[in-house]
Amino acid sequence: MLSYNEVYFVVEHFGYLAKALARKGSDKVHIAVLVKQVPDSDEVKMDEEKGTMVRSGVGAIINPLDLHAIECALDLRKKHGGKVRVFSMGPPQAEEALREAVALGVDEVFLLTDPCFAAADTWATAKTLAAALSKAGPHDLILAGEKATDGETGQVGPEVAVMLGLPFSTYVSRLAIEKDFAVVHRTVEDGVEIQRLPLPCLLTVLRDLNEPSMPTLSGKKKARRFNVVKWSHEEIDLSPLEVGLSGSPTRVVKIFYPKVTREGAFYKGKDLDKGIEHLLEELHSRGLLDGGKGNA
Amino acid sequence: MHRNNSSSEILVVGEVRGGILHSATIELTAKARKLADILGAKVTTLLMYNHVDRSVEDLSWWGADVVLCAVGEEFESFNQEIYTNIISYLIEQRKPQIVLAPATTSGRTYMPAVAAKIHTGLTADCTGLDIDKDTGLLLQTRPAIGGNIMATIQTPNHMPQMATVRPRTFPVPKPDKRRKAQVKYLTLPEELLKSSIEIVGKEVQEGLDVNIQDLDVVVSGGKGLKKAENFKLLEELAFVLGGGVGASRAAVDNKWISYPHQVGLSGKVVSPKVYFAIGISGSVQHLAGMQTADFIVAINKDPEAPIFRVADIAFCGDLFDIVPRLIEKIKAEGGKEQ
Ligand SMILES: Cc1cc2nc3c(=O)[nH]c(=O)nc-3n(C[C@H](O)[C@H](O)[C@H](O)COP(=O)(O)OP(=O)(O)OC[C@H]3O[C@@H](n4cnc5c(N)ncnc54)[C@H](O)[C@@H]3O)c2cc1C
Q: Which residues on A lie below 8 Å from B329 (Cβ)?
């Protein structure tokens, strides 16, 4: 049961009429989690000769950092009640990732899949997710992992927030919902910043937020037959020009493999002392042994 | 926004954290100068702060033509909403061709928000920037998939072209103290400074007052350290070299050291002058966080350890034998006179 009044924000610069919802009286927290399917980096091996990653035959999993967002949503559901929905944009096979989310215990799953979504950059991905979220709304909280282990940009979360006209925070390592606010700890370079954001808002979370649970047997069973809602660009009212590659402001113009192997000197046994001398020379030449200078 | 509306300006968003001007501000200003010289553009560096530890005018020494300062109490703590408002506003006012910011937790928070707001592209965590000689477009190169692939990215039809840049990627050139910049203090519309986010407080964590990403030397330990106490050994090595201690995920998972020290795919990316990997096997995920270091030293008892493939100096042996010998030698050489 939803007891919210709809409030509309106009995001000026974007010219996008984003729908957000103000909570009225309810203590329940309805949560959307943004999830990406990524190659399983546990299975990724190095090619000994080329020094590159071997990715063929590698399985696909839910982005490990997104599991912390799902866990957090399930935790909040336990405390406050409400629904947990998971959204993912990806190829048809990303359905598997959503079934994994069902096995973990989420209530509804949405796959945004359409050939025209392919090769989206972060902007076009965010646009697609934002359109789906406003169609599926209302949500009090939107959660996402800090970044995906393949693209590693961490940009989609903040972009979605702005497109929906929502306040957002990032690098969240602790979270509490207090009435109509989220109180978050952000782990940054030199410590923790504590912020209080009004709901609804979007948060990207770190792995130290929680320990993800394993799927249950009954969850896995349920996941097999669960209805995955599938939306193409038509269902979310976007033109093919706004999404995928055509909707992406950026273009990849070149891909190359960096040389990771170095021609290093190898010392062992009796040679170790020689190695230490070699290292001292290197430290000297970098100004690291001349006392006092630098970041001491 | 269209290209022809753009003035010839590169806007660098600087960073002042806790009153200290982050060195990435200087690195980016200097890099922007190089790019601007190719384009015939000027370099403007923006700083938002309440107080700062050095003269902002000094940025001219590294190539800033204009230093824009927004000064006030609202900048004492980082607020992503206010940053987003101000940067978006300045982009609309000044129409720079390129906007660069450090890929710090702050930069990686407000830059995507700005990109979404003004509808342009953004490339995360770049380690290479150049200008395409034919088109004049910014070539933004970044590692992906744990640094195993490099991708060069352009933003051909949107303005400005935006990138966050990994700190310590670009060297800081010698300052040219004859250069003078124009320093402008901004008067900003009130509504830009309003935010729905309340900053409740900040806790500077113990041991976190030093961020390993800012250091010249990082001494990291892994599973091979065997227990928390043994990290004292690494602290000592780091200390005599004026560096800090990092760790593999295995060491962090064992609670031998806290998460902010983790280097790698799901931890921090560091590019120090010298990186020590001690008792670390060299998983692809760990390499993702340290392979851009200038010089890599690995200590491992396993001659087949993958870490040796990226090492400039490989010590094959027991770390508990080698590290103390190393510390002793460095001390004898004077080390970093403490
Ligand atoms: C999604 C994902 C993200 C990850 N992110 C990260 C990350 O950010 N950072 C990270 O580090 N890992 C990360 N990992 C984990 C990574 O795969 C490895 O498990 C981890 O890096 C191993 O840590 P280690 O090298 O310390 O331990 P091990 O692999 O166990 O290596 C220990 C090494 O110590 C050596 N050793 C033991 N005793 C001695 C001695 N007395 N003297 C000398 N050498 C000795 C051994 O020979 C061995 O090589 C991630 C994994 C996944 C799946």
A: 276, 280
